[in-house]
Every structure is written in structure tokens, then in C-alpha cells.
Amino acid sequence: MPLRLEIKKKLAQRSERVKSVDLHPTEPWILASLYSGSVCIWNYQSQTMAKSFEVTELPVRSAKFIARKQWIVAGADDMIIRVYNYNTMDKVKVFEAHTDYIRCVAVHPTLPYVLSSSDDMLIKLWDWEKGWICTQIFEGHSHYVMQVTFNPKDTNTFASASLDRSIKIWNLGSPDPNFTLDAHLKGVNCVDYFTGGDRPYLITGSDDHTAKVWDYQTKSCVQTLEGHTHNVSAVCFHPELPIIITGSEDGTVRIWHSTTYRLENTLNYGLERVWAVGYLKGSNRVVIGYDEGTIMIKIGREEPVASMDSSGKVIWAKHNEIQTVNIKSVPADFEVTDGERLPLAVKELGSCDLYPQSLKHNPNGRFVVVCGDGEYIIYTALAWRNRSFGSALEFAWSSDGECAVRESTSRVKIFSKNFQEKKSIRPAFSAERIFGGTLLSMCSNDFICFYDWAECRLIRRIDVNVKNVYWADSGDLVCIASDISFYILKYNRDAVSSHLDSGRPVDEQGVQDAFELLHETNERVRTGIWVGDCFIYNNSSWRLNYCVGGEVTTMFHLDRPMYLLGYLASQSRVYLIDKEFNVMGYTLLLSLIEYKTLVIRGDLERANEVLPSIPKEHLNSVARFLETRGMLEDALEVATDPNYRFDLAVQLGRLEVAKAIAIEVQSESKWKQLGELAMSTGKLEMAEECLSHAMDFSGLLLLYSALGDAEGMSKLASLAKEQGKNNVAFLCLFMLGKLEDCLQLLVDRLDLSLSLSLCLKVNQKAAESLADPEEYPNLFEDWQVALAVESSVAQKRETYLLAEEYLRYAERRSFNLVEEFKNMHIEGEGEEVEEMPLENGTLAHEEEEGVDGEVEDTKDADADDSTDGAVIVNGSEADEEWGMNNEGTVPSSA
Q1: Please, is 136 exposed, middle or buried when counting C-beta atoms within 10 Å of its C-beta (0-12, 13-18, 19+)?
Q2: N or C: lower Cβ tally within 10 Å for the chain?
């Protein structure tokens, strides 16, 4: 059965011919050496070129990262090795290494050594801590040495591949090879060691179009991989997956099973010949160098193969090795912190005869099933003994301990609790996936069908593309996760039982009322578990969330990809694992979940009984949950945060509660908000108090002016002047009619001496241009008239008309006293112009037209022939009073 490894293309970059590739162990970088003579670093996360080095005009056939030194080492056809610092782009070392093309450079994993091989048929060892001197030369090949590679299991040894058709195994410090493998019918281009497990294997690729797997202890060929139609130019054992990768000049990359040697996949990206394959331990990424560019692919999932039972025992698979840890074995003196790696003692449990792609406890934790390589094996969880096995692409447990296997897209088998076959089903569609739980579900690419375990009767078909199915322990709730969202459904057992017991036929859609959609959330679920009626999951942004009643709450932001293992109620913690098999815990209070669940069910009495058991620091979370459900009064009672309680009180119109909180926290913004609310609800006394606390002068001005509160306005004027709020102070004084105070306020704030000083500092000429009207009356038009008018009307400035007189004098608001006074002299000899009442200190000049069209004298009878309060234009009194001569001009002596 195939491995069914998912392969995704992660980077594709066109370039000149790529002769070698390498992956950086910590940075998202691909190193590519080009036939054109340059070396490039591609960032596969940003899909851009990070750095480029123009090395030489000849081909650079090999380049490698030396990450611990932040270097790149490159060998080229000019026979020179160059070393660069990839951060500063500086050359660290340049030296002539061989007398012919350099085919390969290899970096020792721990020691300061670099191996180089060349067309001069030599292999040389260089020590960078000794100034890059050559410490050893290895002679023995009779043709070009195409590749050298260190043995990761014994770094004192290395292998070399040559066009003399042989593979030689060497020891550092020894001039002669340990042994030689006469490997192929034609030249050998490439060699790589097997890194996983105990098998002493290496693989070679040749111009005879084959790749061969060798046991270097028995010096025998284990397997020949045939299928390529041209020279095999690159080979590797993948360090994390049970696969062999071969690349050829036929343009294809072939993926083989490393145990069965079955061909799993053939990749062709249309970039002509393949020259190099690169990989990295601990990563599923593989990079391929072609004639026309670079491709990076990701093979399989990085999610660890692990399972946790209800008691906290975790079992995981590292390759074929099975290990176990117990979360409850954490030392008592260890202070557990959310997100911190737990110091767990790892125990070897055994090994597995197949490569595990999934591993899952059964509901009671007694058994563990491992599935992979098209087979499944059921083991006892404690002793790791084989209990049952068979063929399976997928395996699923029922909630009662039964199980199902998908042997193919057209056959699913169901087994009893003692693993005896009960039933074989041939679905009427292509079954691409199966899931267990309360019901057995089979999925095509477009829909999911639920069946009962007992009779395999169709319960319901739902048209949705499904990635995973999660059942709650109660069996009443199920989460269906798709690529972009997840759905929470309620399973109606009674409706299903009633329908099936009635004998009514079930159509292709199943029982209509079997499921009720409760909630839909537009988030991608990576992994999920149920705790009671709460669904816990991590999403595509690696946030750990939980969903209760359709409300999603973020528990924690994860700093790296992690995957859910399970929940321990005794510790109130949910546990996750990363791809390095580190286990972390995060606090999740069951009492909090229980409370929310009871509220959703409407059982408020029991919810209130649970509430006291929730720690105080979580009460605000409870209050926000209640708020989302429209239970604002309850939220106000529960909340502890003053700011949040204030907002709730304002929403509810509970102004006294809000006022008490405002007194407690003494926040101007809260006083202002409360004052505006009190004003809008007609509580003017509270509004005045709140606005005063908030020092909201604008609000107080609005309040006092609307109420006609002269006393309040006067207090506000004084307070505003103290606080420097001159605009508000001026408006208060103006509305009170205190014009002298208004003028004084303006004068107080107009510091002419400061202005003059500033002008002197800035511009002497501008300062000299300031003139005194007493000295230069010719520069100030109507200056003396203005002074006379001011003197005349000052005594009547405090005279105010009643409001009912407003319309009569409204049109005279814009009169200019100076212009009016001047016009009175021009209005004609011998006519008398009556002085009109002063409106706020403004002279009102009125003429009323009579019936016969003549101007009527509107002067009061008692004032006839009197000059008190009257202005006679052609008389001497006006001239004397206003200091005017007969020409109506200001004397030069004035």
C-alpha cells in the first residue's frame, strides 16, 4: 500500500543551471551554486533572493553552509575554494585547492574540517582552525571524484563516489580506503548515507540509470532501484521520512519507500535535468536543483505522531521507535508555567514493524493502533504487544471500543471490541477518508455520510468537504472541520431512533432531523478536542481557542506550531506537543467551561452554584461571556474590573452605579461620559456634578446657558479664568453682559510688551513700525471720534432691553457707532436727529416715516428743547461734546 505522503511545492525560482543546493539549519534559506559562476541564497518564506555572490566566471559545482561560523564555502572550476561570511558578504579565505575542477565540498558536522573532491582524482581535508591548511590527501580513485559525504553515524568516516565506477569508504587519519565497492556498470555520480534506525546502508546513483542501496558492513547490494531513463545525478535517504529520493538527467525526481523500495511517486516540474537534491535533518523540506532553476517541496506532515490517554500517558513514534512519557510524573517541586516545556522522562516502549503515519489510543486507553505503509497494528498500551493487525489505509475507533478500517476507496470493514470482523461495507461512492466516534463517518471529496456502528445504516449525508470530525464524549455534539471553517452540530438520537424504529425507508440523504446545526465559525481547525460541551482547537494562526455556545475565546497565542494532545481535568490543563516532541500545558478551568455550558443550556440556578468556584481573576471573562448573551445585569454583578463595570453600568443606564465607580477611579473621561449621559436623561444636578469633576467647561457652559443660571455662569467664568480657559471665560462674561470684564480679559491676555520684545528680537524694522496713536494721530483714522463715542456710551453700557424688545432692534445689531456719529453730522442742516435708546451700549438711530411722507419727530415731549441726552448736529453742543469743528474734522491739536 502506498505511503500517501502529501507533497506541496513551497518555492519555484528560475535561474541559470543549478549544480548544488543546501538548506540552512536555522534560517529559511536555500543555497544554490550556479553553472554561471555565482552563488545565490533564496529565502523560501518571502520567495525572494536574500543574497548573491559573484564567485567566478566559471561554474561553481558545489557550495555548502557552515552555519556555526556564518560562512559559505564554495568550490569552482577555477580550482579555487572560496569562503564568504554570508552576513557581511566579505571574503574570509581564498586559496587554490586542486589542479582540476572541484566537484564537491563537504562540511564535517562537528569538527573544523572541510573535504573537497576534484577531477584531479584527489580528496583533500582542510582545517579552518589551522588557517585552512591541507591536513590530509586521500588518493585511490582512478577517475574524477564526483562526491564525498560524511557518515552521520560515524563522523570519522566518509564515502566517495567516482566515475571509475566505485565507491570508497575512508577513515580520517588513514591514507588508504577501508574498502571499495565496485558499484555500477558506469560511473558513479552521487552517494548518501542512511541516517535513521540501525541499518548500515548507503545509496549510490550512476550513469547506468540506476540507484543502488548498499549494506556497507556486509559490502553487499541490498536493492537496485530501476526506472530512470538517464543518468542518476542525485540520491538521498530522507532523514525524517521512510523514503529515498533520486534525481536524474531525465528531468524527474522519484520517491521510493526506504523499506519496501516500492516507487511511491514521480515528480516532474519541467525544468529540464536534475543536478542536486538537498535536505535537512528535522525538516520535511526537500530542495531540488535543475537546469532552469530551483524547486523546494514539503513532503508529508510535520505534525508529530502522538496520542494521550485520559490518565495523562503519552505515546509517540519517532520513525519506527515508540516512546512514552507520563505527564503526571512531573516532579512535585516543579512549578508548571503555561507554555513551558515539561521535564518529562522519556521511556523506550518498543519498535514498530511499519512506519507510523498515525497513532491513536482506543477510548479506554488499553490499546493503541498504529497505521502506516498500508497496514495497521493494534498494540497493548502498557506492554506494547501485538494484539491484532491487517491491511488498512486508515483506522478509526468507535466511542465504545469497536473499530473500522478502510482497506481501499471501495471497502470498509468493521470489527468488534475483541477485533473480530463483523461487517464489510462497499460504499456507493469513493471513500477517501473515514472517522470514528459516536457514528462511523465516510467521506468523499464533496460530502460526508454518517452510519451507525451496529447495522451500518445511513444516518445522514451532509454536503461539505471534510478534513476532520471531532465527537464530544457525550455523543450529543460533533464538530465537522473543513478547509476554511468548522461547524458544531447537535446529534438528535431520539429523532434517529424514532425514524428507524418506525420502519420508514431512509433515502440517500438519510434521516432529515438527525443533526441540527448550532454554530458555524470561519476558522480553520488544525487539531481539536472536546471538554464537556466546549470545543478546544488551535487555528491556522496558531492561536489556542475554545468555543462554547458559538462564542470563540482565545486562550493563548502559541509562539510556534503545536498540536493538541488532550485535557486532564484533575490539573485543569490542556496539553499540546510540538514537532520536536516537547510537551506543554495551558490552564483551562473546567469550572469556567461548566458555568458557560450551564448558562447556554438556560440552567441559571446551577450556573450560579458553580460561579463561586471560579477564581476571581477569571470573572471578567465570565462577565464578557454573559454580555455577549445579552445578560448585562448579570455581567455587571459578576465583573470586577472597574472600567468594564462602568461601561456596563452606562449601557444599562445605572447612573448611580456608574457614579460610584467614577468616584472610585477618579477618571476625567468617565466623569465626562457620565455627565453627558446624565444631561441627555434630564438628571441635571448629576450632570453639573459630573461635568465639574471632569473639568468639562464646554459642557458646563452649555448646561448653565440652557438653564439661564447666572450664578453658575459666574462661577464658571472665574474657574475658567483660573484654568486658563479664556474662550469659555469670555463667553460667560459676555453672556452675563459684563462687557467691562470681557474687555479687561482681552487686555490681560494681550501682552504688548511681550509682542514688542519679540518683534525687536526678530525684526528691528517691524518693531519700529509700531506707532502710538497719541503721537501719530494721522495714522489712526477716527481715533478721537472713537474715544468720544466710548466716553459717551460707557455710562449707558449697563442698560439692557427686555427680551421682548429684541425683534424691534434686531436689525440694528451691526451698527457702527463711529460711522453713525459721523453720518449724523452729514444728515442735513437744521434737522434734529433724535438719540435712540442704547441697545447693549449701541446707539439706535431711528426715523419713522409718517403718513404724509415727512419725517416725524420721535423725540420724547419732555426732552423738547433740551440738550440732555440729545445730539444736535448743527448745534454747538455736539461740536463741543465730540471735539469737532464746523468742518466735522478732528482739530490738529486734538
Answers
A1: middle
A2: C
> What is residue 331's predicted lDDT score, i.e. its pLDDT?
82
Give the separation between CA 255 and CA 372, rounded to whole angstroms: 17
Q: Does position 93 have pLDDT exceeding 80, yes or no? A: yes
Do the domains 13-299 and 474-588 sit in the same CATH topology, yes or no?
yes
Helices 590-601 + 619-628 axis angle, to 10: 20
What is the C-alpha separation between 393 and 371, in angstroms, rounded? 7
For CA atoms 175, 180, 185, 191, the dihedral sign is negative
Question: How far apart are alpha carbons 245 and 247 in whole angstroms?
Answer: 7
C-alpha cell read off for 611: 460561579
Instruction: Tally the C-alpha atoms within 13 A of residue 139's C-alpha that lie toward its C-beta.
Output: 2
Q: Where are the domains of the chain?
A: 13-299, 474-588, 782-882
Q: Which three cell numbers stand for residue 70?
A: 556564518
pLDDT digits (tens, 9 = 90+) for 451-489: 999 989 999 999 999 999 999 999 999 999 999 999 999
Instruction: Taking residues 179-185, report their average pLDDT.
Output: 91
Whole-model pTM: value is 0.65
Query: Quick one: cell of 739?
Result: 462687557
Torsion, Cα 608 613 618 621, to 10 degrees, reads -20
Residues 6+ apart with CB under 8 A from 271: 14, 251, 290, 291, 292, 293, 295
Q: Report the C-alpha gap between 698 and 687 in whole angstroms.
A: 13
Closest-CA residue to 313 (of 377, 376, 380, 378): 380
Q: Which three cell numbers stand for residue 365?
A: 486507553
Give the cell for residue 780: 489712526
DSSP string, 556-596: EE-SS--EEEEEETTTTEEEEE-TT--EEEEE--HHHHHHH
842-870 per-residue burial string, b: 16 or more CB within 10 A, e: under 16: bbbbeeeeeeeeeeeeebeeeeeeeeeeb
> What integer is the mean pLDDT of 308-336?
89
- Reported CATH class of domain 13-299: mainly beta
Half-sphere exposure of 546 (CA within 13 A, CB side): 27
Task: For 751-806, write each residue's pLDDT tens digit.
Answer: 544 554 555 555 666 666 777 787 787 788 777 787 777 777 766 666 666 667 77
* Residue 467 and residue 481 in contact, taking contact as beta carbons nearer than 8 Å: yes
Q: What is the sign, positive or negative, of the torsion defined by CA atoms of 557, 562, 563, 565?
A: negative
Determine the number of helices (DSSP H) and then strands (DSSP E) in the chain.
Answer: 19, 59
Q: Which residues of 475-514 are buried (b: 16+ CB within 10 A; e: fewer)?
A: eebbbbbeeeebbbbebbeeebeebeeeeeebeeebbeeb
What residues pair up with 868 in beta bridges, in sequence order? Answer: none
Predicted confidence (pLDDT) per residue in 369-397, tens digit: 999 888 999 999 999 999 999 999 999 99
CB atoms within 10 A of CB 195: 18
What band does 342 get if pLDDT is binned at 50, 70 and 90?
A: very high
Burial classification of residue 822, based on how many CB atoms lie within 10 Å of its CB (0-12 exposed, 13-18 middle, 19 or more buried): middle
> Tell me, what amino acid is at 235?
V
Domain 474-588 has CATH 3.40.50.720: no
Q: Residue 844: which of 873, 821, 878 has the closest Cα?
A: 821
Residue entry with cell 489712526: 780
Residue 330: pLDDT band (50, 70, 90) is: confident
* Angle separating helix axes 697-707 and 684-693, nearest 10 degrees: 150
Q: Give, as one character, the DSSP assignment of residue 861.
A: G
Phi-psi region of 384 (alpha: psi -120 to 50; beta: other; left: phi over 0): left
418-449: burial string, b at 16+ Cβ within 10 Å, e else = eeeeeeebebeeebebbbbbbbbbbbbeeebb
